[in-house]
Specification:
This protein is α+β, with helices and mostly antiparallel strands. The chain has 3 domains: 2-229, Ribonuclease H-like superfamily/Ribonuclease H (Nucleotidyltransferase, domain 5, 2-Layer Sandwich); 232-333 and 335-340, Taq DNA Polymerase, Chain T, domain 4 (Up-down Bundle), CATH 1.20.1060; 382-547, Orthogonal Bundle (DNA polymerase, domain 1). The protein is built from 23 helices and 23 strands. The strands form 7 sheets. Strands 1, 2, 3, 4, 5, 6, 7 and 8 form an 8-stranded mixed β-sheet that branches. The chain has a 4-stranded antiparallel β-sheet with strand order 19-20-14-23. Strand 17 (515-517) and strand 18 form a beta hairpin. The longest helix is centred in the C-terminal third of the chain and has 31 residues, at 536-566. It starts with a strand and ends with a strand.
């Protein structure tokens, strides 16, 4: 027991420091009868290679300030017992990292049977309330700075986060450290209570809490399992390819420097550098578009360096993965999966950036476990089907509607009108659309062109970018887009409703501004970093489609992860990318796992105005 009185005089409270694992467990179990415990991330005081002392602040209702100070192995035993063998409810900031500290180092099977609902994560809930938006000048990962504890304390509690005064260290640095950890734990508990009270006052808030409890929180064990166990890679092939790729990148970098005359100033991988180059050196008006590796080619004639920059960026994204695979211990890479990095709800996969590599690279270098096969499951035409559900366009819904009784099929044919013969012939949205547009525009439009057009409609690709992708003029691309809206006018009308909703001002959870919500309650703010003149309408449509796909694939992963655990199967989920799940599956489990995948991922949406249901079918590939 140590006594410490802070500069602000916290009622002359004592700081209790527990240094034995059994005493720590007894205290936590007894204190938790009054409510959940708020705990900090462990702070490791190194003392040798695998030894050391771990400090952790603990705050419980109506209890004196407490810190635990346990040897590293005892701390891991303490957390493991607390998580798996006690009813203690725990609140922390960034729960996945808190759990990972114990289970990654121990190298145990992270598919443990703990009740995730006993935990609360302030980091995750704050993200759902107000997802951070990436703005100009930020690099990937910087968006999460807004979710740091000190920033959230100011935002939700209205208090400046107190800094650790330097005079404390002059007096007794050890006590100061204990007090700081307990203060952090106290703020975590207060922050959780404040956010829950805020959300409980509105129906929107209840929807967001449901999203948190039913999808985002239960997803943490599945993500933790993927991170700790990793995914197997073809290291030998990666080592050979890295040498080739590095040589190509050196050549491209030299050519770019030669053409630009700025060898040390220009970074081809920086979006900010690239946009400045296109605007200042090429005279390009970006019109609020973002730059990606595919649409960059539309500016190829503006400057001779552009084609080299485009090739460099595409190859460099694959190279980052290849270098990680070449250096991977035991032929496994352990990527990190962040739930709180994107405004749309998609996961961000880093170190290595598996979502940035090309499909052919994933196919060649990502391997199943020994004796397993790789199973890939994704939604078929997800964006097009969701567009039908959201827009309720009669023709689009008729193409995707589930089969029904004879009278419904007759209604379907009437709604299809002139498209009915194409529907009877193809029963495929992209072939139907391509055939009709080819007929209307007197041009050759392929099924792949129709897929690209669907991507443009869903994710806000401008006519200029679409023209490059279709290898045609900007005017022809505008004609293709116009013909699509003529064919499916409900889509255009829905987009106009979305834009109208976006212009409305509102206030939710104490945060004023314009926002949109997915059917599952995910929300995105739109008035801090961007304006309507910077493509906000495209981002709005992108969010409603991409955000709902993110909700669906996360929900499916939660369901599938639980089923695999309950049935004690050896198959495991190794990766989630966009709208797809990848599993490493023993050959004798392939059939049963395929059945579980279909059950977990299959979703049906009602379209009441048209008396339809539209399913999201699942495509399963085994290699």
């Amino acid at each position: 027991m140590r006594e410490y009185q802070s500069k602000n005089n916290h009622n002359n409270k004592y700081i209790q420091v527990l240094t034995h694992v059994d005493l720590s467990l007894d205290w936590c179990i007894q204190a938790s009868t009054a409510g959940p415990l708020a705990v900090t991330h462990p702070l490791v005081i190194p003392d040798g290679k695998d030894a050391g002392t771990v400090l952790m602040g603990v705050c419980a209702p109506d209890q004196a300030p407490l810190c635990t100070a346990l040897p590293l192995e005892e701390h891991e035993k303490f957390v493991d017992t607390l998580v798996t063998d006690t009813p203690v409810r725990i609140i922390t900031h960034d729960l996945k990292t808190w759990l990972k500290h114990t289970y990654e180092r121990k190298g145990v099977d992270t598919r443990i049977h703990y009740n995730i609902s006993k935990f609360a994560c302030t980091y995750l809930l704050a993200y759902l309330i107000d997802p951070p938006e990436r703005i100009e000048g930020e690099i990937e990962g910087d968006v999460e700075i807004s979710l740091l504890l000190e920033n959230l304390v100011l935002k939700f509690l209205g208090e400046p986060y107190p800094k650790l005064e330097t005079w404390l260290f002059d007096k007794d640095p050890e006590d100061a450290l204990y007090w700081r950890l307990w203060e952090d734990a106290r703020y975590i508990g207060r922050l959780w209570d404040s956010m829950v009270r805020l959300l409980s006052k509105t129906s929107d808030g209840e929807d967001l809490l449901r999203l948190y409890h039913e999808i985002e929180l239960p997803l943490i064990p599945a993500l933790l399992d993927m991170e700790c166990r990793g995914i197997r890679v073809d290291q030998e092939r990666a080592i050979k390819m890295v040498k080739i790729v590095d040589g190509v990148l050196d050549y491209l970098r030299d050519r770019i420097s030669e053409l630009l005359g700025r060898p040390s100033q220009f970074n081809p991988m920086s979006d900010d550098h690239l946009e400045q180059f296109l605007v200042r050196s090429c005279g390009v008006d970006l019109q609020g578009q973002g730059i990606n590796d595919d649409t960059l080619w539309q500016f190829a004639t503006s400057n001779p360096a552009v084609p080299y920059i485009a090739r460099y960026r595409k190859i460099a994204r694959n190279a980052a993965f290849l270098r990680s695979a070449a250096k991977s211990p035991y032929d496994f890479v352990h990527a990190s999966f962040s739930q709180c990095s994107t405004a749309t709800g998609r996961l961000a996969v880093r170190n290595p950036p598996l979502q940035a590599i090309r499909r052919i690279v994933r196919k060649l270098y990502l391997l199943p476990d020994e004796g397993h096969v790789m199973v890939e499951a994704d939604y078929a035409q997800a964006e097009a089907r969701l567009l039908a559900v959201l827009s309720e366009d009669p023709t689009l819904c008729a193409i995707f509607a589930d089969d029904g009784p004879p009278e419904m099929e007759e209604t379907r044919r009437k709604r299809l009108g002139a498209l009915c013969p194409l529907w009877e012939q193809h029963r495929d949205f992209h072939r139907i659309t391509a055939s009709w547009l080819s007929h209307i525009l007197k041009a050759s439009i392929s099924r792949d062109d129709s897929k690209t057009l669907m991507y443009a409609i869903s994710y806000g690709m401008a006519a200029r970018s679409l023209g490059v992708a279709l290898q045609t003029s900007e005017d022809q691309a505008k004609a293709v887009i116009s013909a699509f809206y003529d064919l499916y006018p409900g889509v255009w009308e829905w987009k106009q409703r979305v834009i109208a909703d976006l212009t409305k001002q509102g206030k939710r959870f104490g945060i004023a501004g314009r926002f949109l919500r997915t059917p599952m309650g995910r929300r995105r703010m739109f008035d801090r970093a961007f304006t309507e003149f910077e493509g906000e309408d495209r981002r709005a449509v992108n969010f409603l489609l991409q955000g709902q796909v993110a909700d669906l694939i996360k929900q499916a992963q939660v369901r599938l992860y639980r089923e695999l655990l309950q049935k004690k199967m050896k198959a495991r989920i190794v990766l989630q990318l966009h709208d797809a799940l990848y599993l490493s599956v023993p050959e004798d489990e392939t059939g049963p796992v395929a059945t579980l995948i279909e059950s977990a991922m299959l979703t049906r949406f009602p379209v009441p105005s048209l008396d339809y249901t539209i399913s999201m079918p699942v495509e399963i590939k085994v290699r």
